[in-house]
Amino acid sequence: MADTGAKSDMRVLVIGGGGREHALVQKLSESPKVDAIWCFPGNAGIAQKASIPNLASAEPNTLAEFASAKGINLTVVGPEDYLAAGIVDVFRARGLAIFGPTQKAAQIESSKVFAKELMKKYAIPTAAYEVFTDFPSAKAYIQHVGAPIVIKADGLAAGKGVVVAQDIDTALTAAEATLSGDEVGEAGRRIVVEEYLSGQEVSILAVCDGVSCIPLAPSQDHKAIGEGDKGLNTGGMGAYSPVPVINQAVERKIHDSILIPTLNALRQEGIQYTGVLYAGLMLTKDGPKVIEYNCRFGDPETQVVLPRLRTDLVELLVAANQGRLSSFGSLDWDPRASVCVIAASGGYPGAYTTGFPIDGLEAAVGALPDIYAFHAGTALRDGRIVTAGGRVVGISALGDDIQEARDKVYQAMERLRFQGMYYRRDIAWRALEKS
Description:
By secondary structure, the chain is α+β, with helices and mostly antiparallel strands.
């Protein structure tokens, strides 16, 4: 790893092509230590900040060969599927520096059963649960414990493998459809049926070096497609930071009772966890409890957290890779609030059509100061930026408080247009209700 104590000719590769990766590229590009950035597969927005290589495949070995040929000093992995496929193991076997957990460590997201059993074994606070591979057994359990109850596919399902069922019929339908493979394929052949937790959710992204961790600023995302947090789960329709229900005492409790015990538990299992540990938590009357773990930066949480981060992100990630977070010091944060709203394709998270021209991007960013447009599902076609995914663009804004940041985002959203565009108009409602 190049010495980052002074100006260096540092080359960075970001893996992924969504809004999270655009936010990572943006923040990495602000570092005076970074000389060049590549991103694969990237998108139309990322291409304005990073070089997009033309590679024959997205296989880890192909990416490792590219990183080696280009003299990449640090690779940062965005999506969970690359991590679950073992890209970190492939890079490290070649002596290449990469930020992220190994394939074994990534099980904390790629298998909800692995995560739940780890928490149960090491007494990390979480919801009660049972695991099922057949519908009759799941049905009997659901009918016995009643609703509300949560049905989760064991494997990776792009944020769509969870159903919070308010009644038994909904729970049974979700369990049967998931186990059949109709909903999320093989990822659902094993399910977790979990106790419903009441409270407010919060997302904590912690940069980890295997022993120590430094949590980033708390955020709260909105997973449901509908306003009031109703309807089907998505990859995330918006987020905000900071979170009014989180104070320093709660942050300390999360660090001491969840984050560090999780790293210690993984080490006991022979797993050194480096990378970002995302803890999705419920703040219950009995204290914070884990709803889920992710093995990477959250999306869209990254789009509200990184605009507030003043500390050089490259320095933080290099320190984590080198196992020296315990001496890194505290992070410097912009005291202002950040809000992100996602513009999605009509029909998402169900079937949707892509290829529609996107208008108003420059007008949206130029509407007011401190507004960012993070491309998620976009592509360049015949010189026009067009839609290329379910979640298309995330607009983020900084403001003196949540209300101001939200007002700025929605002013910007009014300038953005594409056919079928849909976005929630109530992002951060819990924060404003609290205030």
